[in-house]
Amino acid sequence: MTAKQGQVVAHGAFALFSARRRDEVGELLTDIFGRDDVSAFGADWRGIVYFTLHDDPEIASDTLVGFDPSSGASGPLASVDDVLGAVRSGEIADAVDGASFDAWRVATGQRSLDMGDCVPPAVFEFMGGDPTERSSEPQDLVTFIAVAAALMGRLEALGVQPGDEIPDEVFDESRWQ
Hints:
single chain, 8 strands, two-stranded antiparallel ribbon, alpha+beta
């Protein structure tokens, strides 16, 4: 990678991971997706993480895949080189809805986000939340991803379908230990 590692862009709207954060997020994504060819790359202020897959026959190894833990959606987005170019030019802010990020910063009085922080929806989208209604405080990215994955896994294990009422068992920690 030719860009500086650990780089935060546009007041934290986007961040290229440092080696430590790349390893930490990569391990989590490996567990979530059940594959060992995941290389974490970066994340945006919304908690969407970006990574590459090295052994996928359908996705080139230099293609960034985006994963939104709040909705569970994932898919290929752009090449690593294109994203690094957007980081260098500052255009990455537009690609990650920098205008909404700036509005959130003004509304909350936050000057910037630190690497490893995000501003996820107040309620996960897969639980009926609105992606435009954001948390008022930054949250740890790794915790956000892990909690979203655990809750989604619980919903799947209970057979909850979209539109179903969310059963209390989802939040019963003793059931899931």
